[in-house]
Amino acid sequence: MSVFGKFPRTFWVANVIELFERWAWYGFFMLFANYLTGSSDAGGLEFTQEQKGWLMGVGTGILYFLPVLTGAIADRYGYRKVLFLAFLIYVSAFLLLPQFSTFTGVFLMYLYLAVGAALFKPVISATIAKTTTDATASIGFGIFYMMVNIGAFFGPLVTLLFKDTSSLIFYVSAGIISLNFILLLFYKEPGRIENTKSTERLFETFAGIFRNMGSILKDVKFIVFLLIVAGFWTMYNQLFLLCLCLSHNGSIRVSCMISSRLISLLSAITTVRLPVLWTRSS
């Protein structure tokens, strides 16, 4: 049996869902900064660089923190339900974002979008983990990250076609995310620990998560690992910051972003191919 045939259907469904989600996110995100600071004549909001920094920095930071909590919500209420809610928030946020022009309005809508993304992230990662085994985990996550980078590569390419009409960027992303409602029909929830008999309230679960985080941070080796990973991503993200600073011209900015994603895509393909070759040779 081919190594690719060892994965269940849910694994492949989850990967295609991830591809479309990243396609929609990066298609929007790569031109979002340009939309925030661009001239009103070109459909922009004319926010200052400081306002853009606060909005994208705080909003995105919250997005990447919340999965510690939203993962617990998914474990309690079910992956399918949380995915449906995430897609609903995604679509509504993309449709509503261009309707706001004040900093407060856009900031709140971006936070709303961040909640949708935070609900999505732990569920799809957990699905990949639960649909792979010790023998297929390496190639499984290699495929997963290849899908991430394929979506991130093609999303900006499509968005670039609509760069002169700012509102269409949001509507295209909403349309791409909507495809995941169809894929959700074929998504079979992987086995997870049922919490139906638990009498613990949700906020008590959250409190337990923060206590566990505190105990983990006492592990010196883990802290060193976090610093190494943080250092890597800090250096890698300088490329994205460079892209944002290159020009207010959306084409130049997106071209830079696409180039960086192409590098990531080639890296992911290599990550997938190496375990396959290793398996064949052993």
From TrEMBL:
Keywords: Cell membrane, Membrane, Transmembrane, Transmembrane helix, Transport
UniProt topology in membrane: Multi-pass membrane protein
InterPro entries: MFS, MFS_dom, MFS_trans_sf, MFS_Transporters, PTR2_symporter_CS
Domain Major facilitator superfamily (MFS) profile, chain residue ranges per copy: 1-192
Primary site of residence: membrane
Gene Ontology terms: cellular component: plasma membrane
Alphabetized GO MF terms: transmembrane transporter activity
One example of a Gene Ontology biological process annotation: oligopeptide transport
Matches recorded under SUPFAM superfamilies: MFS general substrate transporter
Localization, UniProt: Cell membrane
Parts of the chain that traverse the membrane: 53-75, 82-101, 107-129, 141-162, 168-187, 220-240, 252-276
Protein name in UniProt: Major facilitator superfamily (MFS) profile domain-containing protein
Organism: Parabacteroides johnsonii DSM 18315
